[in-house]
Amino acid sequence: MEMPLYELPEVPDWGRCAVMGILNVTPDSFSDGGRWLDPGRAVEHGLELAARGADMVDVGGESTRPGARRIPLEEELDRVLPVVRGLARQGVLVSVDTMRARVAEAAVDAGARIVNDVSGGLADEAMAKAVARTGVPFVLMHWRGQSRRMDELADYGDVVAEVVAEVHRQLDAVVAAGVDPRQIVVDPGLGFAKGRRDDWTLLAALDAWAVLGRPLLVGPSRKRFLGELLADPATGVPRPARERDAATAATAVLAAAQGAWAVRVHEVAAVADAVRVEAALRARRADRGTPP
Ligand code: PMM
Fold first, then answer.
1. Catalytically annotated residue among 85, 194, 223, 224
2. Which of 4, 50, 139, 150 has the fewest CB atoms inside 10 Å of its own CB, making it the most exposed?
3. Euclidean distance between CA atoms 274 and 202, whole angstroms
4. What is the CATH number of domain 18-288?
5. Pocket test for ligand 1, best of 11, 116, 185, 186 (most atoms within 8 A of CB)
6. Span 262-280, pLDDT tens digits
């Protein structure tokens, strides 16, 4: 196997659930599309996320909202690279949210130190080898197909067992292609080929992921299952995406309490405090010998 380019084979550990701030450099992401398309404003926002307590900032150039269509490679590179470069230069730990090996490699060259692939290596067969070459941590998310048609793929018997088993297969495939298992973080992919009930079931059973022996990232931020939970009681209209941050913070704490390595969120300030509260309580429980 080729030597990795960078000496960061192991996933960083903050001793508590970490906070990944979301920076979508897209015109059409479901809750922040169009706000950070200008690279200068995007870098500014990324720095703001870091200042508010994000341990890492996840830069994405392609929307994956339900129904989204792919964009050309060049466009994704143009959106992502200046922002990755700008943030990395200022010392921010940058993750790149991409399904393309070429984007992942170029972003690592520009200073990204984590690759976050919502397809977990399935959308681009060159991804696993690229990740193995770079040696950086790889977020491998559960994925059943492109966003354009993913809602049709939300069909499960036992959603927890099936999603864990499918991620296990994805994990075996990228390891067979040369990725060091110590590089890998797994993610249930809330909202990706999942119905609302599936998202709740997955969140209720995060302990099931322990069998994979890898850190777990959870991405509940502003997602549909929260909007539907908080729907207007009179009209049944889901709560707008930008008004789901308190529910996101609550969900993040519940994930942290189940041992999540990190949560991926748009609004980081409340979550950064909340994961510290959870860690303090966990430490006291450990001191007292109370089971976690
Ligand atoms: N969700 C979105 C995008 N990227 N990456 C990971 N690892 N996990 C997720 O749950 C996830 C992701 C979609 O949300 P956004 O459009 O608000 O970024």
1. 223
2. 4
3. 21
4. 3.20.20.20
5. 116
6. 999 999 999 999 999 999 9
